[in-house]
User: Fold this.
Amino acid sequence: MSSSLLNQMANAAFWENFWEETIATVNAAFTYEELVLQVSPLSLVLALSPFFLRHYSQPPVYLQHNPFPRVKLLAAGVLICLEFLNVVLRRMRTDPQADTMVAAALIDLVAALTIGIILYIEQLHGIRASAFLRLYLFIGCIIDAAKGHLFHLEGGFSSALAIAVAAGFFRFLLLAMEVLPKKLPIVSETVELTTGEEIAREERRRPYFVYPRLFVSRQLRISIENGNLMPIADEFASDRLFEKLRTYWQLDDETADKLAKTRRNAQVNGKVPPPLELEGLISTCYAVWHTEFHRMLVPRLVFATCTFSQPFILKTILDVVAQDDSPLSHKICLVAVTLLAFVGVTIAKSSYAHMNYLMVTRLRGGLVTQVIEKTHRISYKDARASATTSLLSTDIDGIAATLPRVMELPVTFLETCFGIHALSWFVGNSSFLVLVPVLVSNVFSWFWGFVAGPALDACNKFAGSRVSKTSSVLYQLGGIKMVGLGPTMAKFLQRLRQEEMSLSARYRSFETVTIFSMQMANLMTPVWIVSKALSQDTFEDTVPPANVIFPILALVAAIQGPLGRLLDMSSTISSMNGRFDRIQKFLSLPERDEYRFIKNKHEPKYRRLPPGRERFIHPVEVVDVDVAPPGVRQPVLFRVDFSLTQGSITAIVGSPRTGKSTLLQGILGEASLIEGAICVQNEEMAICGQITWLQDVSILDNIIGPLPYNADFFRRVINCCLLQNDLSRLPGGADYIAGPGGRNLSTGQRQKIGIARTVYSRTAVMLFDDPFASLDRKTAVSILFHLFGASGLLREMGITVALVSYLRESLDVSDRVLLLDGRGYAALEDQPFQTPAFAASVKELFDSVPEGPSEEVDDAEREVIRRSLEFEKQEKLSSRVAAGNTPRTSSSDIGISALYLKPMGYVVAGLYSLLIFGLALGEHMPNIYLRDWIDSQSATYSVVGYASAAGVTCLIGTLSYWLLHVKLAPRASLELHQNLVDAITGTTLTFLSVVNMGSMLTLFDQDASTLSRQLPFYAMRTTHTLFSVIIKVYVVLSGAPYFIAFLPVIVFALHHIQKFYFETARQLRKLDIEAKAPLLKRFEETADGIMYMRAFRWLKADTRISFGLLNISQRAFYYLFYFQQWLVLVLGLFASGIAAGLACLVLFLPGKPTEATVGLSFLTLFQFSWTLERLFEVGTLLETSTWALDRLRNSLSKTPQESEREVTPAPEGWPSRGDIEFEHVTAKYEENSGTNALQNLTLVVGSGQRVGLIGRTRSGKTSILNAILGLVDYTGTITIDGINLATLSRDEIRSRLVTISQDQVRLDASIRTNLLPFTINNTTEAQNEEQQQRIEAAIREKDDELEEELKRFGIWSQLLGKSHLDTQLEDAGYTVSELQLLCIARAVLRQRETGSKVVLVDEVTTSVDVWKQSFVQDIMRESFTGCTMLVVARTEEAVLDVSVILEMSMGVIMHSARRDGT
Assistant:
């Protein structure tokens, strides 16, 4: 006999003797009934009682003593007396079982005493009733009823029966009083207001897992349907979580003082201030919620215990099936134990997950509140650069996903160790081999990650670049179509997508290798362990019996899960630590340095005033200040010394980039103060910046903020800011929603609202940083005198004002002028100026300042916004009507699926589905093979066949993954992307002017990623899991043929569960998104406007609003997780019922199946609940992914296209003369519009003639160009060189003509590509060295031409020291004026290349500096000699170099004039 067999037999004998001795010892102390009914549950109560006693004793005393709790304590005292009496009566017995009964009674007495203590402490310290206490009392009532029944059967009425009945009565009385609401007098007034709500919430929460109808309370269902979720417990309130975490997350005074000194030294030395030195965020969170963390491990241990009991239960069932003479009681107990194990797994799993989600909800709320509060205390620059929204949407949500796995690490380790030890009872020391496949797979995946990682990084990097370039094209698509680049850009966008798919396919090919290794580890591990069992000497000539093989497989399956998580724990912990570190890095940012001296409130410790200087004489005093922009150490202003006197208006003037804005930010405390001091009497200051910060609320709320509403003063402010006309035209007036960043308002309207907000604040000091920059001159001057004039509102209120403005009239309303000379120094003089040099400098400064925008610009912008909002309103209305009248049905789902499957090919998709079915069947085939092998005991079966079944499945799984992600999904994604590109580049100009390009960009970004990655993956997973469920049902039914009668019931139940779950989960997910969106938007608005909020002292109001939005988001977040655990519970109980039914059928009914069949059925059933959960989960994710496909379908169907027409090719060299003729042309942009853009226009332009088209906005001047370019539909005839444009392709017309559009086309590419945009898709490759030399010579020659052209326009010097023509446009540093010159240079090169004799110019000089306009016109005259030119401008002065001027109005020519005056 071999040594391994001897060791195994000795090991078995040892454990057999150990368990026999243990059972004998237990039986000597307790009877079986007492062990089941008393000792086991009461021991658990005693073990957990210390934790609950500590938990309930920590809060302060909330409730006063009154008769109701005294009744509860009296009932508890009576129960203790009854248990004591039970001990005495049992001690008086003389039968042999007296000692064992006394031991059990003593445990009862100790448990009753413990419960009494818990009841007393909980009654004083807790507002809510204890779930632990109610659970114990409920179980105690059941135990007392069972004991009473046993005593009645043994001897009828007796003292033991009476005590059991009385104890049960008082336990039931205590349970009833615990269930009743706790409406008691409150000791602490601080909690009195919240107690009623707390009790009410407890009453609503209590039915969640109690009432029928799928265990979801009626209140929760109604709240979900109405979209107004019930509040959760007050312990999850944002303010409470913030205070709880802040207690551990703060600096003591000594450390804070030391840090302030260190930061000051860093500033003096020109270094970056150090971050805050705080405790680790992870350790802090653990210290705050350590009790909750420890409590979560209890249900996790119960889950592990029940899970690892299932293989041994399976072995016992198979032993009973093999025996015909097993007693009935043994079978009944076996059914009960089976049901208990399955229910235990379900309850423990859902309880652990629920406690995890409670913990995650606490953690999420605590971290978000800290981020909100921290945003208020950091600098303006840090707030804008920190991307706080990503902390919430990525890092905090990522912690929520990884925390449960990290928290179960100790139990996972114990599970793995125990599983390996339990497996050794069957296979001996070979049990450790279960580690090898998983370990090898993980090690291989880690090393292979060094190969696949760069491919993934390259793919993600290119995807980001593609989205950026796509965004650039989409937002300029109107101008791109106008200059004829539409087809070129469409091809460019599709080429980018193809390159991205190629990189993705490369990464997916690498990932396929990893998938194969994972498949091998999952499927070959059981094969290896079973082969080791087969190689034992005991089973040399035959396969091991079913009661050995299937418990081994069950143990391997139970080990693989925790083992995989354990080996993957390093990356999980690393990921969670990284997210915590990013949050901690933000929370550790240096706080804003309040360097100002604030009267009676703040005095910086490490700053001093110069000797002899007095403080707080004036509202603002700037003393010898060196100041730099925020976050910069190099000052832009030196030794600035001045003060703002009470009620004065000080004009701050200077050329651009002289530090005017920096100086105002310094007064606010938002700049970097290098030297000197700033003293203010009050920190409340109002500011109006160049770029107005607005929130997505009403105009009224944007103006008044959290201040009380004063109707009279509000109307006066509105009148002074000239907003009354704007409000009268806007729907809702002052209640009109401004939109994100004020998107629903024109630039001028936003600026006027910013001025009104500053004035309404009524602070003692107001700072205006060029507030009129976006207003036309007439409006700006009017507002200036209404506010700052001699009888202006601010003069009347005695406000101290610092004003920066380009208006010369600002000198007329100011008392003093502070001049910044551009070299970093400032000079201050009172009005009138006493120094001639000072007056001359001011005059020279205002003479060089360009005029502001014209009134027409704002009118045109308002019109575009109006049309865009009307379009969005119609889209939302149609979507709402469609959603209400035509909900998604199976036919609509089929239509969406067909949209994705059609590019793949229906036959290919069907064959792929068969491959997935083969994969699902292959995963079950090794076990089915074993079943047949055990049943047949045939020599035709072997380990090779068993291993081959697993190996083939691995190959099928790898092939299915590779086919999907490398072949099929890219094919569908590319075709859908092409359809989208064609739709958006072929749409009308009207649609481009009203559509929200942000939502359109989502189709190219997030939705494109979904269609190429998530959607195919979830579709494959859903199909695979569905096939797995079907196969599992078949395998389970094979173990009990009678069970097939219940199949319709099973299908009916699953159908209703999935229907209810999908509908409710969809609504909850929608509520979660809707609840999170305002919070994220608030984060963005706070980060963008933190400087304004601090100046206006709105931080407390912002904290209150943000915390309120977080509370709403927390509800949806919690209930979404809660409902997922509802699914786990229901499916687990459903599987438990099937398990109990299967056990009954195989144990009690005749015609039992074979042991192997029963073993396979139960082995499959162990994973049935988990598979059902995955099916519902991936089905939900698949449905979510199809929303992207639905949005794409709607976009393709609702994007209007330019009308089709029969076309013929244009002659070569057309247009060669430039004769243009309009004959009775009438054009309109919208078919249903009652206004014509052109009205019966007849016009003849001769070859080489230059015609200027002038007029107000919407006069029709640009419509002439649009009609020529085919951007607007028209009737009549337009010919160029005798060819009717209606017979030519629109794209060909646009590419043959030279157009300089008003909208600058700026490609996200090099300067060379921006000058030659039609070559963006050229990828010429040389076939030999000679051809390569010719290509390089041609490129050099072309580059020389481009360089000369840029030098001629004066924009070449900016590229020196960079990459010359290879410099990216965004890195060139061009101003807006210089970018317009670049666009003109592009047109010159295009005309030179094509020889076109028609040039269309649309208001190009509006973006060119005044002193360069004549220079630009000279270049255009020289470059376009002999060309016919149509030049559009607003005024006659802007079209100096034309021979004829046509004045347009309402689509007709009102007046024409020649330059010679005729």
Q: What stands out?
A: The first helix runs from residue 3 to 29. The longest strand covers residues 620-628. The radius of gyration is 40 Å. The mean pLDDT is 80.
